[in-house]
Input
Amino acid sequence: MDVWTRRPLRAVLCLGLAGVLLLSLDAGAAELSWQTGFPMRAGNQVLLMWLPVPGAQTYRVTRRDLRTREERVWTVAAPQHVDPEAPPTSAYLYRVEALGADGAVLAESEPKKLEGFRRLEAPAWGGHYVEGRSVHLVWGAVEGAVFYNLYRAKQGEEPALLASVQDVKYVDAAVEPGATYTYTVRAVGLQSQESADSKPLVVRVGEAGAAEGEAKATRRTVEVAAVFRETSAYR
Output
């Protein structure tokens, strides 16, 4: 029988106290209950927990990919399991069966569907300007993002996480005059999944602290500065 189908009721004849044959209904395996809130995503993993079943020696966990229909099966001793590889963008169906010492199914859970998350778009830069020894950065909001990871790489160095912010703007107040920096930003979703990198934004800071070639405020600088005053323009 398909593991995703509940076992049907069975008619069973049994001998009553007065020697009379009685007809009863056997529901087969009992129901195994999921712990509240499970299955639960945690990045690229899925945490599964359920209530223990008396007499169970092992538990069989089955996962079906709802797009490819492929299945994976794990056998565990404890009433919990971690699916080690479950991309947030994929949707899955999970089911657990409690097995006795002879391998018979003692209880089975209802299938639990875990929806996939839509892939987040990479943020687009809205602009930047340099003021003194600070770089002001603005990017566009991404649907489904709960915060943004901003990365910075000084010329000749590897990118590193500069900040995680819920806003669509950031002031990097730790730049060095004469240095060149490359910035990228990623949107982060509810389950901590990151989007792809934005296009790289290269900023050269002049020796005096102003961006090279920007001795005076340009129209673009004024526009970006206005966004910092009224962030709602990018919401």
